[in-house]
Predict the structure.
Amino acid sequence: MPDPATIISHGTLQDSYQFLETATSLPLPVDEVFGFFANAENLQRITPPELAFRILTPTPIDIGEGTIIDYRLRLFGAPFNWRTRIVQWQPADRFIDEQVSGPYRSWTHLHTFAECGTGTWMTDRVEYQLPLLPVGALALPLVRRQLDRIFRYRASSIRVLLGGGA
């Protein structure tokens, strides 16, 4: 269920940081799109099923600055836990989650939502460092392909779940 309408770019920043940036247009109002993300349980609905993603934090989760959410997922058959903290929460505009513990050396994910002529322009910018550097850098091409696939699946799922078309 890939979403070819989603724009994805990758790059390298200073100090071995990488970035992933996506942009998706949704024919829905900003409040509705942001509201979808304000329900943490939707993250499970927009993650590819083979990742076996589960939220461990008891639901419903009241999201705001400082909220910590625990997850369990599987990547390439290996299970692991991931903990994130919401470090910025500005309803109908943006939020930032950061990895507290998990598979990356560092992971910061900025989500932004803006009105556009056809509805909502949603962007994601993830800045991350791979673990076990410099050896971990050998996995970068594989990580980028996997992130592409995950974020395209995510965009397509959001369209279907919000009724914005496939």
Observations:
- The CA atoms of residues 160 and 166 lie 6 Å apart.
